[in-house]
Design goal:
Elements lengths: L3 E6 L4 H14 L4 E9 L14 H23 L5 E7 L2 H8 L5 E5 L5 H7 L2 H8 L4 E4 L18
Parallel strand pairs: 1-2, 1-4, 2-3, 4-5
Helix pairs in contact: 1-2, 3-5
């Protein structure tokens, strides 16, 4: 019996939660485990100045966020689905592609926190697509989903 692994990048955003949910649905009934990975780094810039005052606090906050998102998905899909959760210090694209080296699939949200940072600094999902050694699935954010109440417009031709 073959066992499969899906690695999912989780960052606390809605997009990351959607990626984890997609992976859980895809894994259900397929003898597939899910590993949710959250990269974190202490640079003092992105830290919430009210709660994060050290690298240890940053790691603790990352673990809490990851745990909350995993619990949300397990509550929806049931506890029968094995989801491992891991926080790893480092650059998100490097952390995720390294974690996915032996995986069958890497799943990411299309946008994490901060669209300005996305446009200025580049995209973790784009970098993962270039570096990954396994197939990558990128789940679009809610605002990029097709609108079911809108009809497709086909140009006359």
């Amino acid at each position: 019996m073959n066992h499969h692994l899906i690695v999912v990048g989780v960052d606390g955003s809605d997009s990351g939660l959607r990626a984890l949910d997609w992976a859980a649905r895809h894994a259900t009934g397929r003898n597939t485990a899910v590993q949710a990975v959250m990269a974190w780094a202490w640079d003092g810039i992105e830290a919430d100045v009210l709660t994060v005052t050290s690298p240890q606090e940053q790691q603790r906050l990352a673990a809490e966020i990851l745990d909350r998102q995993v619990k949300t998905v397990v509550a929806e899909h049931g506890s029968h689905l094995p989801i491992a959760a891991e926080t790893i210090e480092g650059n998100p694209a490097i952390v995720l592609t390294t974690a996915a080296r032996g995986a069958d699939l890497l799943v990411l949200g299309s946008h994490g926190h901060g669209r300005l940072r996305h446009s200025v600094l580049g995209s973790v999902s784009e970098e993962c697509i270039r570096k990954a050694t396994c197939p990558v699935v990128v789940i679009p954010s809610r605002d990029r989903q097709p609108q079911p109440d809108r009809e497709a417009v086909v140009p006359a031709g």
